[in-house]
UniProtKB/TrEMBL annotation:
Name this protein carries in UniProt: Glycine betaine/proline transport system substrate-binding protein
GO cellular component: ATP-binding cassette (ABC) transporter complex
Domain of life: Bacteria
Record's keyword annotation contains Hydrolase: no
Presence of keyword Manganese: no
Organism: Roseospira goensis
Taxon lineage: Bacteria, Pseudomonadati, Pseudomonadota, Alphaproteobacteria, Rhodospirillales
Annotated ABC-type glycine betaine transport system substrate-binding domain residues: 33-313
InterPro entries, per database record: ABC_Gly_betaine_transp_sub-bd
Length: 335
């Protein structure tokens, strides 16, 4: 593990050193300073570092990371034109703000960063579905509470929901009612925290024990463990608002929609740096790839920069399609 981290750190140092060369310095004057929002969660930090490395090494930019979070970053980009890029924006809470700013020519939605979108759902381990194929559907789940025994309530099955305070806990409570899981013999268990929920899945999987739980991706958990999303649950936009409300009197069967995850840029960046913008607007990553990178980061206690370097070295078949061949060779040489 320490060897991997040291190697990634060495690659990072090499990457930074290339900027000191006269050629890169001259090119940087053309591209100029570029600010990239680095969000606090793992995938966003990796993506921010990825864009920084490619912009610096491949396009001669003077790219730097600035701290960010979804709402403050969107507000700053739409009102102040800074930062230039935000590689992982979940727009659900600010769709109208983004649409208005885009219509007014202040920002651009460059690309769908995650090819499969952000995913939320109810999951069971693949090894359980292999043994009991009926568990791949909600009807099979309803009929087999005994396969997920709750040690604290004998005779009941356990469903791991979201920790208190997460919006998904409200959704899960309503879906739990809508699908009749109480009548089917299930209890709803609060794991207490995000790490508690991830830890419960990890513990069960590594011991090949049963678990039925809510989770989401991209995450290290989904990169490490083969989990199957329960089918037979369809998203219905017409009844979704009620399902998300704590006061929903009559929740109907539903399921989480796939969430668009976007790269947002300022219009000024796009217009002033067309080549760099062409790269940024081409970045889209399959969820299974980013899950695997996040799992590697967690296993190696690696930084977002090390994760980005690991991605560039491990998945050239993904990222070299985003850039011209000469840029790809320049980035590879920097690594």
């Amino acid at each position: 593990m320490h060897t991997l981290i040291a190697g990634a750190a060495a690659m990072a140092a090499t990457s930074l050193a290339v900027l000191a060369t006269p050629t890169a310095a001259a090119a940087a004057e053309d591209c100029g300073r570029v600010t990239i929002a680095e969000m606090s969660w793992t995938s966003a930090a990796m993506l921010a570092n990825l864009q920084k490395i490619v912009l610096n090494e491949g396009y001669g930019c003077d790219a730097e990371l600035v701290p960010g979070d979804t709402v403050p970053t969107i507000t700053s980009m739409t009102e102040k034109g800074e930062p230039d890029l935000a590689p992982e924006i979940w727009p659900n809470a600010a769709k109208e703000v983004i649409a208005e700013a885009e219509a007014e020519g202040r920002v651009k939605v460059a690309t769908r960063t995650l090819e499969d979108g952000g995913q939320e759902g109810w999951f069971v381990p693949a090894y359980m579905v292999d043994e009991h194929p009926e568990l791949a559907t909600i009807e099979g789940i309803r009929q087999n509470a005994q396969l997920f025994p709750d040690q604290e309530e004998p005779g009941k099955g356990r469903f791991y929901t979201c920790p208190s305070g997460w919006q998904c806990q409200i959704v899960n409570e309503n879906l739990f009612e809508a699908y009749g899981l109480d009548e089917a013999g299930y209890t709803m268990f609060d794991p207490g925290s995000g790490p508690g929920l991830a830890g419960a899945i990890a513990k069960a999987y590594e011991r090949r024990e049963p678990i039925f739980a809510y989770y989401f991706e991209p995450t290290p958990v989904m990169g490490k463990y083969d989990m199957v999303m329960i089918g037979g649950m369809d998203h219905d936009p017409e009844t979704w608002d009620c399902v998300t409300s704590r006061d929903c009197a009559d929740p109907q069967p539903n399921m989480y929609p796939s969430s668009e995850v976007l790269t947002l840029t300022t219009t000024a960046f796009a217009e002033n740096n067309p080549d760099a913008y062409a790269f940024v607007s081409s970045v889209t990553i399959p969820n299974d790839v980013i899950n695997a990178v996040l799992a590697w980061q967690e296993d190696n206690q690696a930084t977002g920069e090390a994760g980005a370097l690991h991605f560039l070295e491990t998945y050239p078949e993904v990222w070299t399609d985003w850039v011209p061949a000469d840029v790809a060779e320049t980035v590879k040489a920097a690594l």
